[in-house]
Amino acid sequence: MKHPQEGQRLELECMPYNRDTGIYWIHLDKDWNLHFIVSSTPVPRNTFQGNKRTSPQFEARWTGNSYRLAVKNFTTQDEGIYFCTSNINQVLHFSSGQPAFFPVATTAAPTTSAATTPSSQATKKDIWHSRDPGTSHNNIPSFYCKMVMWVNLVCACLLLLTAITITITHCQSKSPVKVSTREDPLAALISAASSTNAEAETVTQHRHFLHISGSTL
Description:
- The protein is an alpha+beta fold.
- The chain has helices at residues 118-129, 140-174, 185-216; strands at residues 10-14, 23-28, 34-41, 45-48, 58-62, 67-71, 80-88, 91-94, 98-100.
- Strand 2 and strand 3 form a beta hairpin.
- The termini are far apart.
């Protein structure tokens, strides 16, 4: 990886797969967008973007053994990965990427070792050992299934009990009250005796009246 400075000249080298074949320089920027730079041949002949022979930003040349690409003034837009490709027998060959980024300024952050007290250790230990296997996430669906099953069973029992109660009440309201038309024998006997006594008393009174009337005459 190369780490050029702002405004510095950057040179990249590409070893061709076949010396008799030209190459293409491609730039992959930080946003993962590909940009065509130049097409170079051993003649030498360079064709930059826009079918131009020269570029104010890049230079390309053939050294006899390798192709070279130079970034004249390296800026933030030039950061990324550079590839050279060649088309041989309708097969596209890519070289290994050459990253080029500005050096990253790293500042060492102050490290403070956190003092671990026995109480904090004990707390962490208690937390880890206080986990109940029965309340794990795997058992939560089973618990809810059982709860729903019991609720449905209780509701079914209540509905059945209500239906039985309504049926009994409905049947009792429709059944007529049977009144026995048969007289009690004892009551009939007492009634007959009362009628006999009343008739006897009437006869006695009639005789007494006749006796009084006869004596008077």
